Amino acid sequence: MSEAEARPTNFIRQIIDEDLASGKHNSICTRFPPEPNGYLHIGHAKSICLNFGIAQDYQGRCNLRFDDTNPAKEDIEFVDSIKHDVEWLGFKWSGNVRYSSDYFDQLFNYALELINKGLAYVDELTPEQIREYRGSLTAPGKNSPYRDRSIEENLALFEKMRSGEFAEGTACLRAKIDMASPFIVMRDPVIYRIKFAEHHQTGNKWCIYPMYDFTHCISDALEGITHSLCTLEFQDNRRLYDWVLDNITIPAHPRQYEFSRLNLEYAIMSKRKLNQLVTEKVVEGWDDPRMPTISGLRRRGYTAASIREFCKRIGVTKQDNTVEMASLESCIRDDLNENAPRAMAVLDPVKVIIENFPQGEVEMVTMPNHPNKPEMGSRQVPFSREIYIDRADFREEANKQYKRLVLGKEVRLRNAYVIKAERVEKDEAGNITTLHCSYDPDTLSKDPADGRKVKGVIHWVSAEHALPVEIRLYDRLFSVPNPGSAEDFLATINPESLVIKQGFVEPGLKNAEKGKAYQFEREGYFCLDSRYASAEKLVFNRTVGLRDTWAKMGE
Ligand code: ATP
Ligand code: MG
After folding, report:
1. Counting ligands in written order, which one lies closest to the CA of residue 34?
2. Does the fold of domain 345-459 match that of domain 271-342+469-554?
3. What subunit structure does UniProt give (predicted)?
4. What's the order of all strands across the beta sheet hosting 208-210?
5. Cα distance between residue 454 and residue 93, in whole Å
6. Residue to probe by mutation, ligand 1, list 44, 50, 320, 328, most atoms within 8 Å of CB
């Protein structure tokens, strides 16, 4: 990885430093445990950078483990996309990909161990009754009438569950802990339930599946994870994590530490809601460039380095907070400002005829590929009598603040000549169709000889040589900062989140490379769209604008 700067520090790394110093551990093992029920998003990137980053910096290991205990919602498509995204972010997991389902046999045996110790029982309350018996934050729960069955009876019933003799929802295995515990997760949590669903890894071998809280701690211990890092909503579950490991025969006892989730303004991180956007076709798919998914950001033009940098900047704490979209954008802008070659594109074209420029003549003008990086070289761009400029770069009248082309006044064409607007041609509706200009032949990349000051600079493309292009401009997907808390988040979709323009780009972009970013001068950073661009058609996505427009767009 290129960014070999100082290591980040955070409370988790301090704990690791202490554990190494005290000799509690001599090597560190973390894991990233996604549930394959959706594509990864920028919140997952935070967890990935934390877990894999620690393994890298401490010469430890980080496992990729699919937490696949709910076959009904999972899919191999998600498994594949998650592997790809982790690799694309620049990380390598230790050994083979792991699955919680690899441990189904062991998990079953640990469940038997709990039953044999009188610490688990088969309950036949209905799911509704279980909820009712659980109590609330203010009221204790009450014991199930099935709680005191004998070990033999429990073993026989659990075997009946496994062999498919119970219907879904008619029996489950529960840990026997404490129905009056102030921690609701400790009120005899369900650890196995019946599900007649085919599993993407184990097929039809099982019709009972272990629950997350039972599976996760045991999987961690079996893999020799030292520090099991998860988000704050699992704080209470840590008690159950420890209870399970304390009550079974297993040599390791990893420690769980919680950190705050990433929340991003104007975005949604819930996989259930992201899935809804996809299935209801509000967006094109998980990789829609407006999605906060890794695949969406990649298609939008974000680099892996910019996402890693973002995760570094936001840090890891226990404080809940919401990060501004502007801070994500500034990471990609900083990256591309350094690395993206410049090019010219006119997004909203109006034709300009330079009347004193010789008909049929083409002059090649030299343009640097980066204003501050001569090592990035230069290119030749054709200039001719007819060009396009952006409609917004011309006004018939304007005050001094407007530093572009005004009727009767001059402006510089970037890396070319000074032109003067002489007259406008309009259609019947009053729209400008053509601008007639003159140029000063003695101003190619130099100031006018008589000392006239020409302040403004605008971009342009030669009409005859320019290539037609479709430009996709993206804005925030939601029109409120916290769509997740809206009663109906779909009602907060920003109708302007995608605007498509038909413009022109300089001819050199015929060979634009997929996956490469360009700065279109004065417009922003763009990349070819991986879905729509083809040999016949140039389609560019705007990754981000040149400046932060969020501040003034807010409120
Ligand atoms: P959801 O609640 O939307 O289903 P999840 O947290 O269940 O998401 P997982 O696939 O279980 O998604 O997440 C894998 C790992 O990524 C977990 O360790 C989880 O804590 C972490 N993670 C998920 N979302 C975020 C987030 N917004 N910020 C930081 N870490 C996250
Ligand atoms: Mg989860």
Report:
1. 1
2. yes
3. Monomer.
4. 120-123, 172-175, 190-194, 208-210
5. 57
6. 44
Class of domain 345-459: mainly beta
Q: How far apart are CA 445 and CA 383, in angstroms?
A: 13
Annotated domain spans of the chain: 3-261, 271-342+469-554, 345-459
* DSSP state letter for 199: B
For residue 6, what pLDDT is reported? 72
pLDDT in tens, 138-193: 999 999 999 999 999 999 999 999 999 999 999 999 999 999 999 999 999 999 99
41: nearest Cα among 372, 364, 257, 294: 294
149 Cβ below 6 A of ligand 1 = no
Residue 262 CA to ligand 1 centre (angstroms): 9
Give the Å distances, CA to CA, from 273 to 98, 168, 262, 265, 289.
27, 26, 16, 15, 16
For ligand 2, an ion, list residues with CB under 5 A: 35
The answer on whether 211 is annotated among ligand-binding residues is no
Count of Cβ atoms closer than 10 Å to residue 174 Cβ = 24
Q: Which of the listed residues 40, 98, 231 should we mutate to test ligand 1's pocket, taking the one with most ligand atoms within 8 A of CB? A: 231
Question: How far apart (Å, rounded) are the C-alpha atoms in residues 521 and 342?
Answer: 6
Give domain 271-342+469-554's CATH number out of 2.40.240.10, 1.10.150.120, 3.40.50.300, 3.40.30.10.
2.40.240.10
Active-site positions? 35, 261, 271
* Angle CA 302–307–309, to nearest 5: 125
| Residue to substitute in 47, 211, 274 for testing ligand 1 pocket (most ligand atoms within 8 angstroms of CB) | 47
Dihedral over alpha carbons 195, 196, 197, 201 (to 10 degrees): 80
Any atom of ligand 1 within 6 Å of the Cβ of 270: yes
Question: Measured between alpha carbons, how far is 364 from 383 in angstroms, rounded to an integer?
Answer: 6
Return d(Cα 397, Cα 27) in angstroms, integer: 70
How far apart CA 493 and CA 282 sit, in angstroms, is 9
| Chain length of the chain | 555
Question: pTM here?
Answer: 0.94
- Whether the CB of 317 sits within 6 Å of ligand 1: no
Q: What is the CATH number of domain 3-261?
A: 3.40.50.620
User: Is 262 within 8 Å of 42 (Cβ atoms)?
Assistant: yes
How does pLDDT run across 349-399, given as a tens digit for each residue?
999 999 999 999 999 999 999 999 999 999 999 999 999 999 999 999 999
User: What is the whole-number distance in angstroms between the Cα of residue 34 and the centre of ligand 2?
Assistant: 7
Kindly compute the dihedral angle of the four CA atoms of residues 346, 352, 358, 364, in this order, to the nearest 10 degrees. Answer: -10
Token readout for 238 is: 């840590």
Token pair 């009248």: residue: 397
> Residues near 233 by Cβ (< 8 Å), separated by ≥ 6?
261
What would the two tokens of residue 277 be? 């956007």
Q: How many angstroms is it from 270 CA to the middle of ligand 2?
A: 10
Closest ligand 1 atom number to CA of residue 233: 20
